[in-house]
What we know:
The chain is mainly alpha-helical. The protein contains nine helices and no strands.
Amino acid sequence: MTRRSSFNPHSIALPVGALIVAMASIQLGAVLVKGLFPLVGAPGATALRLALASCMLLAVWRPWRMRPTAREVRSIVIYGLAMGWMNLFFYLSINRIPLGIAVGLEFAGPLAVAMAASHRAVDFLWVALAAAGLLALLPLGIESRPLAPAGIGFALAAGFCWALYILFGQRAGAVHGGGTAALGTLVGAVVIVPIGIAHAGAALFSPALLPAACAVALLS
């Protein structure tokens, strides 16, 4: 009796499509946020992104209806802290080095998570191909301009936070879905917004910033 393959291309079409849309949306948000840097700096832009995004997500998911356990609350808090610092480190990075290189370096975090979770040889092949793609982004030629060390460090720090974001977000999100994202973003905002205010001051509250900041929050 021949065993039929369990692979169904239709079962992965939706998650793959969602992933592509998410990547495009996040990178477009990263392009737009650079316009805020001269006005409020990277910390101020991060504060706006998290504060406005948390308002949007709270309105949509209404997480106050959740009844998380103590363990889930711990995961949500760590997830939110990782999200907040990931965004701050990433924005500090793209303020110093090109966006494509920063994204490539930051991707080391989820790449490490993928390697740790891989159980089949073909998984490592895909990870190796992704790593090769990241190397292709780096300016390794003789005539390439050196990258700012701080930018590299911030991108790698963002990657580390991204790994935590995935691990703890998956634990809490498996039960509460979008409510986890809403509460996590709120936790990130509570931590990062004071840093943004300390850096940008009253400029952070300028109504002229709202259209671009809302676009960044929605896309990112």
